[in-house]
Amino acid sequence: MENKNDPLLETFKKHIEFEDSMDSFMLNNYLKAARRYVRVATGKEPAQPVMMVAAILYDFRVPEGEMSKALDSMTPILLAEVFADEEIDEQSET
After folding, report:
1. Are 10 and 33 in contact (CB under 8 A)?
2. What is the three-class DSSP state of 41?
3. CA-to-CA distance for 2 and 22, rounded, in angstroms?
């Protein structure tokens, strides 16, 4: 089974200041999990929140209380994504 790189992989590496000498094996998995998390929360996969959630997963690597707090801190950003679309939809209907 071929493992394709996420289209955000290179941008994500820059976002987390990833060094070429480091092992990038898990980065696609973090991006995949982040995409799922953001999609469930917002119904879409905007790049910036996906990279922010993936960075949290990368930073903590093992679920713990601090990871939960970090993911909870994403709630306002994810809500803003949802409400921004609703506002745009309402404006286009008028």
Report:
1. no
2. helix
3. 22
Query: Distance (Å, rounded) from C-alpha 33 to C-alpha 41?
Result: 12
Please report where in the chains the tokens 């994500």 appear, as a residue.
12
Give the type of residue at 69: K
Q: Which of 65, 64, 74 is nearest to 34 (CA)?
A: 74
By the 8 A CB rule, do 41 and 35 touch?
A: no
Q: Classify residue 30 as exposed, middle or buried by CB count within 10 Å of its CB (0-12, 13-18, 19+).
A: buried
| pTM confidence score | 0.77
Tokens for 18? 């990833």
Do 29 and 58 contact (CB within 8 A), yes or no? no
Q: pLDDT tens, position by position, for the chain (94 residues)?
A: 455 889 999 999 998 998 887 778 889 999 999 999 999 999 999 999 999 999 999 998 877 888 989 999 999 999 998 888 766 655 555 5
